[in-house]
Design goal:
Outer membrane efflux proteins (OEP), alpha+beta, four-stranded antiparallel β-sheet, elongated, 2 domains
């Protein structure tokens, strides 16, 4: 009774610790929460928020306290002295900014925060596509492993039959050895397929932000196979409306305009209003005075000409970047759409013209070989042709799925919420 209970507890603990298969949606959410590169990029938003605080600050007033005494050289004040009495000065200056400099600084800081947020969204777009591509790699590697295992199982079945035929004297020993060598080759193919699957899983877990890859990591879901419902022109329009990198270039142009307004404001001189309290006293005789001061620099040499010119050039540069990225997006959409079209045609062609025939030839040749009506070479050729056809089919399915994810990425659908 105790032994059964212990076995049940062990089985229950194993079930609890087993990895639950991860779907693509779960993988994307985990990557967005834990991806290390994305975590670094998110700090740019908090840094921009800190700069907003700095931009909103007003200049500090200045307090100056000074004193004068005649006791340093041992001289004392007296009525016949030509020097003045001991003196205490308290001076304050209050700077006043002109041309709405603080408002312009805050406007630039807001634009920079928006740029930082768009930078995070652009990083999210890249992370999502990388996870989707890595997920397809795992799915493709799993299909290839399944195919290799099926091929090995068939060859091992043939070897078993050949061993029985050899014992009955119906088969030459060299024929059995040929089938054993072929089975050994397919066993190597299984090991290679398993290695590729393990590597694909490790890469996917790295993109998910997992510090220690799990050996029992599994995924759920099949390769994507839906049809595209939008024409190329609509995909291009959506890309220009919601791509974070394109929006960021437009925001950069707006930020440059705000910076130009700030630099023009900085070219206006500020002034300061000061007050000074002075107290003089010696040998019981003293007096106080209060003064008001106004100071302003003369903009003879420095009128912020260089920074104004720089801001103007940055506006032109940002406009050129917008134009360049627009053309680049047109190109990206066209290439992605062409890739989708070719992948769809290839997948349809393989499914319609290749798979059924290759499977039929393999099954017929295997049946004939088991009956002694076909040679081992003919059967192995048919098996390899079927294997090549299935590999092509798996590659075509994976390419088609990647093309759909690529179109989602270039159109900005992965970060638009639609």
């Amino acid at each position: 009774m105790k032994a059964k209970l212990f076995t049940a507890l062990v089985a229950f603990g194993t079930a609890l610790t087993a990895q639950t298969p991860v779907s693509l949606e779960q993988a994307v959410q985990e990557a967005l929460a834990n991806n290390l590169d994305l975590a670094v990029q998110k700090y740019s938003v908090t840094i921009a928020e800190a700069r907003q605080i700095t931009a909103s600050l007003r200049p500090n007033p200045v307090l100056t306290v000074s004193g004068q005494t005649l006791d340093v050289l041992g001289t004392h004040y007296n009525i016949n002295s030509h020097a003045g009495p001991n003196q205490l000065n308290i001076h304050t200056d209050f700077p006043f900014e002109r041309a709405h400099k603080r408002d312009e600084r805050m406007a630039v800081a807001r634009q920079e925060k928006s740029l930082a947020e768009l930078g995070v969204r652009e990083m999210m777009r890249q992370v999502v596509f990388n996870v989707q591509s890595a997920f397809v790699d795992v799915q493709q590697a799993a299909e290839n492993l399944k195919l290799a295992q099926d091929n090995l199982q068939r060859l091992e079945g043939v070897v078993t039959i050949n061993e029985a035929r050899l014992k009955s004297g119906d088969l030459a020993k060299v024929e059995l050895e040929r089938s054993q060598v072929a089975a050994l080759q397919f066993r190597t193919a299984v090991q290679q397929a398993q290695l590729q699957l393990d590597q694909a899983k490790t890469q996917l877990q790295f993109l998910l932000g997992r510090k220690q890859p799990a050996a029992d990591f599994e995924i759920a879901g099949s390769l994507r196979r839906d049809d595209l419902s939008q024409p190329q022109t609509e995909i291009t329009r959506l890309a220009l409306d919601r791509r974070p990198d394109y929006l960021a270039t437009q925001q950069s142009q707006a930020r440059s305009r705000a910076d130009l307004r700030l630099q023009l404001a900085n070219g206006k001189v500020d002034y300061s209003i000061g007050t000074e309290y002075t107290h003089q006293r010696a040998y019981g005789v003293g007096g106080s005075s209060l003064g008001v001061y106004f100071s302003v620099p003369f903009p003879v040499f420095n009128r912020n000409q260089g920074e104004i010119l720089r801001a103007q050039r940055e506006i032109d540069q940002a406009g050129s970047r917008v134009d360049a990225l627009r053309v680049s997006i047109y190109t990206e959409v066209e290439k992605a759409y062409r890739q989708y079209s070719v992948a769809k045609q290839l997948l349809t062609s393989v499914e319609t013209n290749v798979l059924t025939k290759a499977r039929s030839v393999r099954d017929t040749t295997e049946y004939s070989y088991r009956r002694g009506e076909a040679s081992l070479i003919e059967f192995l050729d048919a098996q390899r042709a079927f294997n090549d056809a299935m590999q092509t089919y798996n590659d075509a399915r994976a390419s088609y799925a990647r093309s759909l994810y690529l179109l989602d990425t270039v159109s900005g659908a992965t970060v638009s919420g639609s």
